[in-house]
């Protein structure tokens, strides 16, 4: 059986060699070259399609992952300014020039010791005329603190802790991360500037959607527990670097817990419980941070400003 198979294969090979020998050498080479070219072209076309699809997926993934990093500072401000306007449409401001200057001086003392001491239009603190215990911060550098929350502070260091926490939300870009992905991906420099300078209907709607996303996150749902803990950890480090006593964050949170037990609004609604935040703050305080004491001169300054403040 094996010999029969060998004979058959030999015959097939002989026939093939005869066919090849009978064919024109040039003609055969041309056909082979043509077939090779067709196969190469088909392969290159398929490879090109695969590469294009891969590049598209890679580009989309890269754009998504870098979206928050790539947005220009001025665009962060434009979005934040719109959020601030919405906040001010819902809250009245409390006008007290001495308190205003004092809070902004504390804010500047903090940010100068942070990794981002300067942003597009600077950092600004404003008091909201509300007994609600709450605070807000926008990507534009606006920090809003209610009279109710100021009432939960006992000295300059605890007041600085409130501001440092809000600066954390700004520098960690928590507000921008509240914007839904589809809206954020279209929030390019050109889009945002077009909205603020010569808005078209679809662009204005896009901006409204982004602002609503941020407002819903801050006011209605609150940041995630992880983000709140991140802002607290950020505040502990910033207070330490600025010479304020991080331990006063605990004092402030204890006062919030005491004053907010029966409340269903403000920080109670949108933040983790003060007790869980206190645990997180203590976990982020090292020996150096714990050793910093409240300075009496700062407390005297605080008492002087608060003596004329209606919220205390």
Q: Which oligomeric form is depicted?
A: single chain
Which regions contain 5 or more consecutive residues with pLDDT less than 50?
A: 2-24, 56-65, 187-195
Q: Helix and strand succession?
A: HHHHEEEHHHHHHHHHHH
**Main sheet?**
3 strands, mixed
- What is the helix tally? 15
Helix content: 55-70%
Beta content comes to under 5%
- What is Rg? 33 Å
Instruction: Return the average pLDDT rounded to an integer.
Output: 77
Could you say which overall geometry the principal axes of the C-alpha atoms support?
elongated
**How far from one another are the termini?**
109 Å
Q: Indicate the structural class.
A: mainly alpha
How are the strands of the biggest sheet laid out side by side? 1-3-2
Count of distinct strands:
3
Structural topology:
Elements: H1 2-22, H2 25-70, H3 73-90, H4 97-111, E1 124-128, E2 135-137, E3 142-146, H5 147-150, H6 156-171, H7 181-185, H8 189-197, H9 201-221, H10 225-242, H11 248-259, H12 267-270, H13 274-283, H14 287-291, H15 296-306
Parallel strand pairs: 1-3
Antiparallel strand pairs: 2-3
Helix pairs in contact: 3-8, 3-9, 4-6, 6-10, 6-11, 11-13
């Amino acid at each position: 059986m094996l010999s029969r198979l060998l004979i058959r294969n030999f015959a097939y090979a002989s026939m093939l060699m005869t066919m090849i020998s009978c064919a024109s050498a040039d003609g055969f080479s041309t056909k082979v070259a043509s077939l090779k070219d067709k196969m190469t072209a088909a392969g290159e076309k398929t490879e090109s399609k695969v590469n294009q699809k891969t590049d598209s997926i890679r580009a989309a993934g890269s754009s998504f992952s870098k979206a928050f990093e790539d947005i220009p500072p001025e665009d962060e401000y434009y979005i934040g300014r719109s959020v601030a306007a919405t906040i001010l449409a819902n809250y009245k401001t409390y006008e007290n020039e001495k308190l205003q200057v004092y809070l902004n001086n504390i804010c500047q003392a903090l940010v100068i010791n942070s990794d981002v001491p300067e942003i597009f239009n600077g950092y600004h603190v404003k008091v909201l005329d509300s007994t609600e215990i709450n605070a807000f911060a926008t990507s534009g550098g606006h920090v809003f603190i209610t009279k109710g929350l100021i009432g939960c502070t006992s000295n300059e260091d605890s007041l600085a802790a409130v501001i440092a926490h809000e600066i954390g939300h700004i520098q960690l870009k928590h507000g921008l991360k509240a914007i839904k992905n589809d809206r954020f991906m279209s929030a390019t420099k050109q889009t945002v500037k077009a909205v603020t300078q010569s808005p078209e209907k679809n662009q204005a709607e896009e901006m409204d959607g982004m602002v609503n996303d941020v407002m819903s996150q801050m006011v209605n749902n609150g940041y995630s527990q992880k983000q709140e803990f991140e802002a607290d950890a950020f505040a502990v480090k910033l207070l330490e670097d600025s010479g304020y006593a991080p331990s006063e964050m605990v004092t402030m949170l204890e006062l919030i817990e005491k004053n907010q037990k029966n409340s269903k609004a403000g920080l109670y609604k949108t933040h983790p419980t003060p007790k869980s935040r206190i645990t997180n703050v203590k976990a982020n305080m090292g020996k150096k941070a714990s050793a910093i004491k409240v300075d009496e001169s700062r407390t005297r300054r605080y008492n002087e400003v608060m003596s004329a403040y209606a919220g205390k």
